[in-house]
Specification:
With 266 residues, the protein is of the alpha+beta class. It contains seven helices and nine strands. The protein folds into two domains: 113 residues, no CATH class; 108 residues, Lipocalin. The longest helix is centred in the middle third of the chain and has 27 residues.
Length: 266
């Protein structure tokens, strides 16, 4: 979920998107790569609680945190700079304890360091790292599951508007600003975007069972809200606009070839 971008953003010309959007969409393109990054950071968190593997974890953390810090600075990911800076500083502070050993291992002995740094500890203390390892993945797994459950990926996506009838009359719509056709976007953050007639209209939406509610500020062609039944099989909306006027919208969900985001999280 971290590198998930909005569907309509994927249709924006490369020259028009920010450095933040560019970087975010690049890393978000591969779900398997995101899993790899997450597992690597989790492994560092596990190894760092054991004195036997702490130095390995800190050296890994140094490289990972430095890379992320530079990415955040150079791609204007301002909300994450403080977080990764704290992680990077903590890594350096913990590495200071090993400064003499690192110097001896890498410089003086060329990788032939045999002195043991392990000290004896009681059985209870020795079990604490294992408790941490159990709690961390389970806790974060519950958090990730709850976060994912707030998004209905059978609905979110990019849709081509095949027809838009208000009061049984076709609404005059042409190509929008995003994409080569009139488009409707349902985003994972409950934002809805309609791109028609070379204009973009932003709003919000909610879905409860089969009913979808959309609102737009400012209105789209004097349409401030749409309430209706959303059919997930043929992707149609039948209801009313502005609380009383009949509306019928026929949509076509874009294929993976036209918008990779439509199938990435299914």
């Amino acid at each position: 979920m971290q590198f998930r971008i909005l569907h309509y953003e994927s249709f924006m010309p490369l020259a028009e998107i920010s450095k933040y959007q560019h970087m975010w969409s690049f890393f978000g393109r591969s779900l398997n790569y995101n899993i790899f990054i997450g597992l690597t950071e989790l492994l560092i968190g596990i190894l760092i609680v054991f004195k036997r593997t702490r130095l390995i974890a800190l050296l890994l953390s140094f490289g990972v945190c430095l890379n992320i810090l530079i990415l955040n600075i150079e791609f204007d990911i301002s909300f994450a700079i403080i977080h990764i800076t704290v992680d990077f500083v903590l890594t350096i502070l913990l590495l200071l304890e090993y400064r003499k050993d690192i110097y001896q291992f890498f410089i003086l002995n060329g990788g032939r360091f045999k002195k043991s740094l392990l000290s004896k500890k009681n059985k209870f203390v020795s079990k604490l790292p294992f408790l941490y390892i159990i709690i961390l993945p389970i806790g974060y797994g519950i958090y990730a599951y709850n976060l994912k459950s707030t998004v209905d990926d059978t609905v979110t996506g990019s849709y081509k508007i095949n027809s838009f009838k208000v009061n049984n009359a076709d609404l005059d719509i042409t190509k929008g600003k995003f994409g080569s056709e009139p488009m409707l976007f349902f985003e994972h953050n409950h934002q809805t975007v309609i791109s028609v007639n070379d204009t973009v209209y932003y709003g919000g939406y909610s879905i409860y069972k089969r009913e979808v509610r959309m609102f737009f500020k400012p209105p789209m062609n004097e349409i401030s809200n749409i309430i209706g039944r959303f059919d997930r099989k043929d992707f149609s909306i039948n209801g009313v606009v502005n609380d009383s006027i009949p509306v019928a919208i026929k949509l076509e969900r874009l294929s993976e070839e036209k918008d990779y985001l439509n199938n990435l999280y299914d």
